[in-house]
Amino acid sequence: MDLRHLRYFVAVAEELHFGRAAERLHMAQPPLSQAVRRLEAELGVELLRRTTRRVDLTDAGRAYLARARRILGEVDEASHEARRVAAGAVGRLSIGCVGSATYSLLPALSRGLSLELPGVDFSFRGEMLVPGQVAALRSGEIDLALLRPPVADPSLTVLPLRRDRLVVAVPADHPLAALPRIGVADLREAPLIVHSADRRSVMYGIVLRLFRDAAVEPRVRHEVGETSTLVTLVAGGLGVAVVPEPVTALALEGVAYRPLDAPEPEIGLALAHRTDRTEPHLARAVAVTRRIVLGRALR
């Protein structure tokens, strides 16, 4: 069935006048009349009773009008929905964040994404380590990841966002807290709290490389899976930790943060997604996320 003929019939049925319906549809009256007759012929029923003075709906026409309106309404709604999907205005996305991004970026990110993409349903997972993020991206468990490079996976697109300084979290009453800057050599005798080696944390490798390059043997006392647990143990006086500066957003009483004095005192932050994912709403979320993160980096 030609939907145009359906629209033509509805216009005539609502106006009960071919001339007014033709004007409403911005077309000539003869083609409109022919289109409605073709519709009646296709259905095999008379929908309109025509006289020289007026047009009336038959009983079949009244029943058909009610259904035709519903059909056209659903078609219009489907067209609107398709355009919104093509524009990236609707969809569902899950974003996984490393620990430092959980505390420093997630509040602004969730707020900004919800404001700019109100038709997209976002969910967030915090305190993820990079190997877990990579696995979740591959499986589709999450759609985007704020993570710490390096990531050597050809199936993923990794977009660098910024560089974060490394700082040392120390108990507020520790002698190291009196230093304006802390070097790796200053940590020679300090018990160290690190992210778990078993879970292949990127930060674990970076911290051990810092100590190795400084020819200092690390005294690892605790390995933890979550950044919040790591900082909590520091606050409890159980050791010190090297963390990205955004972790300072997790303000806990009893913890002091000091800049790390090292040859490479920074770590990258990147946004990753599967390369084969090309949905418009994901592309828009990537653009908004980059703008939010880069905007905060310039402050």
From TrEMBL:
PROSITE patterns: HTH_LYSR
Keywords, comma-separated and alphabetical: DNA-binding, Transcription, Transcription regulation
Family of this protein: Belongs to the LysR transcriptional regulatory family.
Positions of the HTH lysR-type domain: 1-58
Transmembrane keyword on record: no
Transmembrane regions: none
Superkingdom classification of source: Bacteria
Species in which this protein is naturally found: Actinocorallia longicatena
Protein name (Swiss-Prot/TrEMBL): LysR substrate-binding domain-containing protein
